[in-house]
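Quick one: structure tokens for this chain, please?
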Amino acid sequence: MSHISRIELEIRDLQSLKDACKKLGFQFMDGQKRYLWYGKWVGNQPLPDGISEEDLGKCDHAIHVPAAVFEIGVVKKGNGYILLWDSWVGGGLQKQIGHDAGILKQSYAVESVKQEARRKGYRLTEKRMKNGIRLSMSL
């Protein structure tokens, strides 16, 4: 059964998303035009805003998660990208990217901060904590 959801995160920096994927052991599939999902909209949930049934499965890039059957679609919207995924448990994504994609969101946020800090000349240290990640910056 299909449960297409939008990951509530706007991607402004594809390089940070690519870095986050690499860090998590995911593959960013540059230019892949379709993402794997259940393949049929069953209408049991509303579609994400701005997405039609015909748009499902189509993307500008995709994220392949090796331990999952389904993939994440990276879809150009406005000045950034949105992420679409089929959260049906049988597709395996939720187990790998976390509830509401929390693991992927956190990794993207960390990589975005690191990228911006480097641009501004800061040195960074990253430390994994029990409940997340701590970034320390200095000049």
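Residues 102-119 form the longest helix (18 residues).
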